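User: Run a structure prediction on this.
Assistant: Running it now.
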Amino acid sequence: MNRRNKVVSVQETRAQVTREKLLNAAIDLVSRNGMEALTVRNICDEAGLSTGSFYNLFSGKDELITYYLKHSFESYKLTAEEEAADYNVVEKCLLVYRFYVRCCKDAGLEFVSGLYSATNSPFFDFKHRDSEDEIVIDLVGSYLERGKEEGVIREDVDVEEAKLRIAAIVTGLQFYWCVFKGGIDVAYQTDSLLRTYLCTLVNKDVNLQFSLAPLEDRGAFLGE
């Protein structure tokens, strides 16, 4: 039994090393040549690995990009959860997405644009992906469920529908951030629209106190 566990551990470690090689190769390719250069063949050539090694771990480059953003966001999410501890449910959701937008900016416009150029990216399918692949929306959903239990969020709120609407707001603004090459104030617009929508979910009998400072409005379109 111990021997089998050791073998599995070694296999998992090798797989992780291969993932990191492929990921670093993809990042280097995009940094030098843009998203147009990001093909499975180019990634493998850059990493010095076979395409078979790639397809043992990823179904395609879109899944690799999803993997990159998911793992990049882990540290941001932990910080967001820590900072959100003393805020109300609306502010908790806003904080998580503030850190998510920051993560996307740090990942770079080219990588995020790659998500939107895919015809069937697993990144956006929060209904069918495995729980371990959750990035943001399920955490926000858990905040809303807890808010219902505490009487802050209305009893009649369908959390799954709310998650869809939140995802649509954030995804739409990220899309236009890519379309306009980073030329919109995606952080403020996301924060403002989410706050407006989330407040419609709050029980009207609850006097929700806000202590999270709003982001500065620099205008929808940023200067050149």
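The first helix runs from residue 2 to 33.
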